[in-house]
Design goal:
With 127 residues, this protein is mostly helical. 80% of the residues lie in helices and 0% in strands. It starts with 11 loop residues before the first helix and ends with a helix.
Length: 127
């Protein structure tokens, strides 16, 4: 999926397509995670769909639950979902930023190799 060190830097259009794909993949992970949270709150706490959505969104976004939980099962679910949400946040951030980090590092690597080639050619002509 990514070019290796011996390949040239991809075009800006190809990079934008790659970034868009990563953003869509991250949005898919968020959507599935939100659906899990909504279903859990609705099924275990008997919350309305909108209250389930609100609580799942707030936990997934890192803010915490809005409604007080009444059942032990709901509290256990909320605890597990909060831990899961923290991991999802890190994964989604990594997925979104990976193309940009790769492009910057690859760009510097390409420049470094070009500089080393020029320096190496200069050494041969000096000696």
């Amino acid at each position: 999926m990514y070019e290796n060190r011996s390949q040239p830097l991809i075009s800006r259009a190809a990079y934008i397509r790659r970034q868009a794909f990563h953003i869509l993949a991250a949005l898919g992970v968020v959507a599935v995670s939100l659906a899990i949270g909504v279903a859990g709150y609705h099924g275990l706490e008997s919350m309305s769909w909108i209250d389930s959505l609100l609580n799942a969104s707030m936990i997934l976004g890192g803010m915490g639950p809005v409604t007080n939980l009444a059942t032990d099962a709901g509290k256990l679910f909320a605890s597990a979902y909060a831990l899961y949400s923290g991991v999802v946040f890190l994964v989604v951030a990594g997925v979104i930023f990976a193309p940009a980090f790769h492009r910057v590092l690859h760009h510097f690597h390409v420049e470094l190799e070009s500089g080393e080639s020029a320096a190496g050619a200069g050494k041969g002509s000096e000696g």
